[in-house]
Amino acid sequence: MLKLAKSEKFLRFFLSLTVTTATLTNLAGTVNANNVQTKDWYKLKQETQVEESKNVVLSKDERLNFQLHGCTRNNKSSTVVCSLLVTNVFNRDEDLRVGAFKNPTIDPIPRVFDFSGNEYSAKFVKLGERESDNAVITRIIQRVPIKLLINFEVPPDVGQLTILEVNYRFIGNSKAEFRNVDIAEIATNTKPSTSGNQKK
Q1: CB atoms inside a 10 Å sphere around CB 57
Q2: Consecutive sets of 10 residues in the chain, 200 residues long: mean pLDDT of each?
Q3: Which residues contact 1 (CB under 8 A, 6 or more apart)?
């Protein structure tokens, strides 16, 4: 009887040890999986931050913040439109002035370059509700973003810009730069005309 009792006691101990080992193994697997997920999340976050940092720059005088939404053209058109948000991070409201090709000697003009070294100056600018092929000026409020559109005439076979240089006047002359900017193609769908009488 004594030997049987000892055998049962040993069996219970062995079973409890097996269950504990299995539990620890499962727990270790869960912790490892969570660590992998955490590393993947941090990696994705870092990649997103790097991508966002490419599209947001502070001006050379550190008074304006520029966020590039992209440069696009329609159906292989030569007109490229670069869309940006400009935020005044200076300590007061001030006038922002951006020039275009008809006023090259007075106002700073945005420009772009392709990978062949060709330069293209802005043909048209729109700042908020004001637009011109000469120059636009508007007072921008501190910490309130305003939309800036800049048009360039770039050959249809150019698909990427080495640099987008946004020259402007804000208290003094300054600029913001974006490098290796892709030109996105936007397809325009045209529906066939249904006007006119059809012959039976």
Answers
A1: 19
A2: 51 51 52 48 41 74 95 93 97 95 78 97 97 94 97 96 97 95 82 45
A3: none
How does strand 111-114 pair with strand 160-170?
A: antiparallel
* CA distances from residue 92 to 53, 89, 144 in whole angstroms, order as listed: 25, 8, 11
Cβ atoms within 10 Å of 106's Cβ, excluding its own: 11
Strand ranges inside the chain, DSSP E: 56-58, 64-74, 79-88, 94-99, 111-114, 119-121, 124-127, 130-132, 135-140, 146-153, 160-170, 172-186
d(CA 137, CA 132) in angstroms, rounded, equals 10
- CATH number among 3.40.50.720, 3.40.50.300, 2.60.40.10, 3.40.50.150, domain 55-186: 2.60.40.10
Max alpha carbon distance in the chain (Å)? 111
137-148 as b/e, with b when 16 or more CB fall inside 10 Å?
eeebeeeeebeb
Q: What is the pTM of this model?
A: 0.68
Compute the chain's Rg from CA coordinates.
31
Taking the alpha carbons of 8, 12, 14, 15 in that order, is the dihedral positive or negative? positive
